[in-house]
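Input record, target 12 of the design panel.
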């Protein structure tokens, strides 16, 4: 009886051991399966992450390429604009140089031919002189020659005054003005108590409102001034 019990106990123990081993094996297999699944999940996640990284990198490279393309296009536009501006600058410089040369030539011509109209007017006066001289040679009439020359002189002074603003002025009887007169002689006079022009040696001329040439004149010297100056000289000598 005890032998049966012992046998039964052993069988139960053996059966329990087998179940434990089976359960342990099952747990181990389950753990391995979970590990495999975990590893699979990790591999999938790493693959997704790598793909995302590659996509981001591709997008970044594409953005850089687009930016680089924009910069290249802008550089080309600036280079074209620079070439255009250089061409315009060269053209402007050439135009300015031509303008400067033209202005210089025109200035030279203006100076060279500034008196052409005046000289053209004078040629008519010269013609009158030639005719007067020829007439005098043929007729030997001094009075006629004198009258002709006087007419030419009047015509010439009138033309110069009307067309060119050159006006001759007479100074006889005027008070001496050092800005208009050049005294080249003096004469004592008791008729005036100040210096007065007595004679025109050479008439003066005005060009419009400006003095062109002062008159060369003889001026009176009041006697009172002479006496005072002589008295001053005697006082100086006595002192």
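The sequence produced for target 12 reads:
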């Amino acid at each position: 009886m005890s032998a049966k019990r012992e046998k039964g106990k052993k069988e139960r123990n053996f059966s329990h051991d087998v179940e434990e081993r089976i359960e342990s094996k099952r747990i181990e297999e389950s753990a391995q399966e979970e590990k495999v699944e975990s590893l699979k999940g990790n591999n999938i996640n790493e693959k997704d992450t790598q793909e995302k990284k590659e996509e981001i990198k591709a997008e970044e490279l594409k953005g850089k390429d687009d930016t680089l393309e924009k910069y290249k296009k802008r550089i080309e536009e600036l280079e074209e604009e620079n070439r255009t501006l250089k061409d315009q600058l060269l053209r402007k410089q050439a135009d300015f140089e031509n303008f400067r040369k033209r202005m210089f030539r025109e200035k030279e011509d203006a100076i060279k031919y500034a008196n052409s109209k005046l000289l053209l007017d004078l040629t008519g006066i010269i013609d009158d002189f030639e005719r007067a001289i020829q007439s005098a040679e043929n007729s030997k009439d001094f009075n006629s020659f004198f009258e002709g020359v006087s007419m030419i002189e009047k015509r010439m002074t009138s033309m110069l005054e009307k067309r060119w603003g050159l006006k001759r002025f007479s100074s006889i009887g005027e008070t001496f003005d050092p800005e208009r007169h050049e005294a080249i002689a003096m004469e004592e006079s008791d008729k005036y108590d100040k210096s007065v022009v007595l004679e025109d040696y050479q008439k003066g001329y005005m060009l419009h409102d400006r003095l062109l040439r002062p008159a060369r004149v003889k001026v009176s010297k009041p006697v009172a001034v002479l006496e005072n100056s002589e008295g001053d000289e005697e006082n100086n000598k006595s002192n």
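The chain has a mean pLDDT of 81.
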